[in-house]
Amino acid sequence: MRLSDFIRAQIEPILENWQAFAKTIFHAGHMDAAGLRDHAREMLLVIADDLDSQQSAAEQAAKSKGRGPKDGGESWAEVHGGDRQASGFSVMETISEFRALRASVVSLWTDAHPTVTGQQLDELTRFHEAIDQAVAESLEQYATVKEMETRLFGAILVASPDPIYVLDLKGRVIYANQATADLFGLKPEAIIGRSNFDLGFSFALDFQRNQERVIASQSTYRGKFVHRFASGQGERFEYLLAPVLDEHQDTEATVCIIQDVTERALAEERIWHSAHHDALTGLPNRRLFLDRLEQEVKHTNRTGLPLALLFMDLDDFKEVNDSLGHEAGDSVLCDVAERLADCVREDDTVARQGGDEFTVVLAAANRREDVEQVAQAIIDALAQPFQTALQPVQISVSIGVAFYPQDAPTPLALLEAADRAMYKAKESGSNRMCFHGPSAETAGQPS
């Protein structure tokens, strides 16, 4: 039996041997098993047809070197090479498919023909030549597609407006596109071979930790950093770190893509600030105040250190608006906000509830005497004249004080307790403070 006929007759056993090997190819794992088998079947049938064709000695010699003649069209081996490159196969994985086919055919052929005749030996030689030719054509196409892919990828990197650079496993830059050089304010040759530490970047340590995480987990990571580069471009940045895997699926490098998000971040901050701060005074509004009060209550629950809430209302402030106008009233409110901030610690929260009502959260208020001292300082500060465009204005304030957890179990209940205490103070006259409690003690200077 001729080898070509043997291949056709024994194609199923040959494919079974080959398929067992194909399962060991990493990139074949995600491919359809039936598709892989059909592809190998086509390889064998084309080779069998080649064995039946008439070839001169020169053609056979050329084939043994992988230089056989082509009919002008794309051969099945070239299709194979391009397909395997696109599917992520390495060169060795691509060649190994041919080696496995060769081994399967030769093994079954020699088992069936323990004694090889001269004719059979010639056919076996032609089979090897056909395999060698197929390998050459496949690898040539593989290289052509790979080269084109490399050119396209290079063009994308060069044209990309986003900085993109590649780092080795020690964090040293091995490639940087022009956008990276422009952002760093350095020439490409000054970047290559250097790490973020070498370049003096403030985010280097955090970046290194995240790169190590990407290398170990072989997963992408999205991060942020704030830095002013020598170029002066941007200040807020987001970056993506992704692993680069070799043909054995080991991490061999990491690629970093940076995006300048300064304008977006500042716009988001303005929106957030507008939503959480009073438009007139710039103080935290009721929404932010309640959030901070809740956080302080949680802190008190953890530490056991009580907090005090001061609720303030400006006495007869309506008269300022009615007599001098809202512009003068707004000016007074802004000055009130500044004086309140001067009376408390930096970590304490001063907020405007709306209109002429203000609140202050005093954290770690261990002693009532200290809270009373702060309230009295506020009364004294607001008793000083306020300068408006028309004339000086003098106002007074009523302050209600409540403590957590003594006077209320929740943030809202605490706010209501301080509000009630404030109305008790207002009923007693101007420039008064009143502590919440059974006796509702009132203190301060009478008007």
Any overview of this molecule?
By secondary structure, the protein is an alpha+beta fold. The protein contains 16 helices and 13 strands. The strands form three sheets. A six-stranded mixed β-sheet has the order 7-8-6-11-12-13, with helices on both faces. A hairpin with a 5-residue loop joins β4 and β5 (251-260). The longest helix is centred in the first third of the chain and has 42 residues, at 118-159. The protein is elongated and about 125 Å long. It starts with a helix and ends with a strand.
| Overall SS class | alpha+beta
| Uncertain runs | none
How big is the Rg? 40 Å
Number of strands: 13
Beta-strand content bin:
15-25%
Overall mean pLDDT:
84
Helix content percent band: 40-55%
Distance between the termini: 123 Å
What can be said about the biggest beta sheet? Answer: 6 strands, mixed
**For the largest beta sheet, what order do the strands appear in spatially?**
7-8-6-11-12-13
Count of helices? 16
What string, H for helix and E for strand, traces the elements in order? HHHHHHHEEHHHEEEHHEHHEEHEEEHEE
Report the principal-axis shape. Answer: elongated
